[in-house]
Amino acid sequence: MSKNSSPIKVRSGQLEFHKLNAEQRDLDLRDIYHWTLRLSWPRFAAFVLSIYVTINLVFSTLYYLGRPCIAGAESFSDGFFFSVETLATVGYGHLYPDSFYGHMVATVEIMVGMFGMAVITGLIFVRFSRPTARLVFSHALVIGPFDGQPALMLRVANLRHQAMVEAEFRVMFIRNELVREGVTMRRFYSLPLQFERLIAFPVAVTIRHIIDESSPLHGLTREDMEKCDGRILTSIVCIDTVISAPVQSQYDYTWRDIRFGHRFVEIYTDLDDHSFAVDYGRLHDTEVAPEAGTTSS
């Protein structure tokens, strides 16, 4: 298998990785399906248009080389538009195959058109039907007091106008550490949360990790986080009740995104016994936390 001479760039959150001497698989026919789904909509449209024009140019060239095989065709453009009509199985009747060669080429083109239409229709359907996670993470993390203990907190909100269900939350702390062999390695720590699952996730919630003696964040200052290049990776998986499909979203923070001694401002307001107002405009706002106090819900 061929190796790619230039680095392949892979982005994950705020980090970008350059793969060196990696196998170039994007052009492999076995990966063409995955490759087309990764394209943006403008690039996907340009890709489909280029395939469509190329196929018609190939068949119009065959008609032109075998002329006169199409009755009424007097130029290359006539053959091109006959190819367009044949590929779409329209058949207006003004132009038609007038020889065995013309019938054979038209037959092949009709088969290509039927298979091609099925493939393109399937790709478009998959692109439209793929669920998207309309979830937003707070721009910053805060480390502040909660119930008398320091806690790492982040806020996440559901931007859909219906509740998600079976939401699962994961938070991971990543840092550089010097191991016994004398080399610096990247270490990954899963942070236990106050709750890792919600049955219903209608609006916004604050995720908390209590920083006790067993926490890998215990005793770390901002300077410590900078020195070890500390990062926090968060992930949410939940089910969209409208399409009954799981959706996933993730977000990563660097040590620069952590606000020590802060807490999130309150965004919930009681309207009555059964109603709450949630101010999405203050979703990312924080304030200096008192030495003893509570955080928002």
Structural write-up:
- It is elongated and about 90 Å long.
- A hairpin with a 2-residue loop joins strand 6 (141-146) and strand 7.
- Helix 2 crosses helix 3 and helix 2 runs antiparallel to helix 4.
- It has helices spanning 32-38, 41-65, 76-87, 100-129, 222-227; strands at 8-12, 15-19, 70-71, 96-97, 135-137, 141-146, 149-158, 164-178, 184-190, 197-201, 204-210, 231-240, 245-254, 258-260, 262-264, 268-272, 275-278, 286-288.
- The protein is of the alpha+beta class and 297 residues long.
- The two termini are 54 Å apart.
- It has 2 domains: 39-129, Helix Hairpins (Orthogonal Bundle), CATH 1.10.287; 135-288, Sandwich (Immunoglobulin-like), CATH 2.60.40.
- The strands form 6 sheets. Strands 5, 6, 7, 11 and 14 form a 5-stranded mixed beta sheet that branches. Strands 8, 9, 10, 12 and 13 form a 5-stranded antiparallel beta sheet that branches. It has a two-stranded antiparallel sheet with strand order 1-2.
- Residues 293-297 have low confidence and may be disordered.
* Topology order in helix (H) and strand (E) letters: EEHHEHEHEEEEEEEHEEEEEEE
The class by helix and strand makeup works out as alpha+beta
Shape: elongated
Look at the structure and give the mean pLDDT.
87
**Helical proportion, percent range:** 25-40%
